[in-house]
Amino acid sequence: MVKLRKVLIFISVLLAGLVSIAGVYSALDSDFLYNIGNSIRNAGLFSGVRLAVLLVSLAFLGMVISILFTFQKKDSTKPAIKISNAGGTVSISSQTLESLAKLVAKNADNVYDIRTIVIDTDSKPSIEVRVKVPPIVSIPAISASLQESIRSKIMETTGTDIENIRIVVDGIIEADRKQ
Amino acid sequence: MSGNELIANEESYGQLKISDDVIAIIAGLAAVEVNGVFSMSGGLTGDIAEVLGIRNLSKGIRVETKGDKVYINIYIIAEFGARIPEVAWNIQETVKKTVERMTGMKVAEANIHVQSVNIPRE
């Protein structure tokens, strides 16, 4: 995901440069954009010009997606825990807690399609873990075990006790999807 | 490029100016060596620079100087399994010692921001 994001950012930077150059060039040559329009109109369905326009459009789409990823990342790096010590402060982001909770849940038995989100970051952080479970399992037992494991791992890693870990079972996974 | 000026001593022939960028590089090199730090977190501009192959030694470091005091914000990605309060304390100590030793300036605060944790691949 990080690599994909970096590729999208790279494409965006490249495109921004190309669009800027085209903008400057069209300001200097008034027929520039008109000639491009004519070339597209006269070109065949599978011609190079149309393919280039298609590629540029796709790249623009990539730029929009990368901007969305950026906003998502900014929000997830919001501090969830703040600790003060003699040297300054230590802030731990929501993303850190979400990653830890997700990894613990991934290693648990009978838990699939895991999504984690930190909520209520202004006061005490709490974590919501949405999972799917296979049929014929004790959901309260799985939930209790998961809460204990996540709480313990976060305590061990951050030194902070997360009091509220909400497990949401939002589906039953089909037998053939089990690993 | 912002900077900070201080007079080394009365017998010196002038002033010594150390830019914030230099302090950031010193802090970055010190922080990344601490056990439990997977990498520095540089945000969007850092990612772009990395994609373009530009090595940014001050990635994930923001420095502010007020008088002869330095305030450093350090953005990191922690290693999975590391105890974050311990890692943070070690970074603060290491960065403070290194910056103070190399620049002679006083580090008032070294604030650690753990942006994410590196999840090992299976």
Provide tags for this entry.
heterodimer; A: about 180 residues; alpha+beta; Alpha-Beta Plaits; three-stranded mixed sheet; two-stranded antiparallel sheet; 5 helices; about 20% strand; elongated; B: about 120 residues; four-stranded mixed sheet; two-stranded antiparallel ribbon; 3 helices; about 35% helix; about 35% strand; globular
Commentary on this structure:
The complex is a heterodimer of chains A (179) and B (122). In chain A, the strands form 2 sheets. Chain A has a 3-stranded mixed β-sheet with strand order 3-4-5, with helices on one face. In chain A, strands 1-2 form a two-stranded antiparallel ribbon. Chain A has helices spanning 2-28, 32-42, 48-76, 94-107, 139-158, and strands spanning 79-85, 88-93, 112-119, 126-133, 165-172. The mean pLDDT of chain A is 82. With 179 residues, chain A is an alpha+beta fold. Helices cover 56% and strands 21% of the residues of chain A. Chain A contains 5 helices and 5 strands; from the N terminus they run H-H-H-E-E-H-E-E-H-E. The two termini of chain A are 22 Å apart. The N and C termini of chain B lie far apart (43 Å). In chain B, helix 1 packs across helix 3. Chain B is an alpha+beta fold and 122 residues long. Chain B is built from 3 helices and 6 strands. Chain B has one domain: Cation efflux protein, cytoplasmic domain (Alpha-Beta Plaits, 2-Layer Sandwich).
What Rg of chain B is obtained from the alpha carbons, in whole angstroms?
16 Å
In one word, what is the shape of chain B? Answer: globular
Major beta sheet, strand line-up of chain A: 3-4-5
Specify which chain pair forms the largest interface. A-B, 28 and 29 residues
The radius of gyration of chain A is: 25 Å
Considering the protein shown, what is the CATH homologous superfamily of chain B?
Cation efflux protein, cytoplasmic domain
CATH architecture of the largest domain in chain A: 2-Layer Sandwich
**Beta strand count of chain B:** 6
Quantity of strands of chain A, as a count = 5
Helix content of chain B: 25-40%
Instruction: Report the helical percentage of chain A.
Output: 55-70%
Strand content of chain B: 25-35%
Percentage beta strand of chain A: 15-25%
Low-confidence regions of chain A: none
Number of helices of chain A: 5
| Quaternary structure type | heterodimer
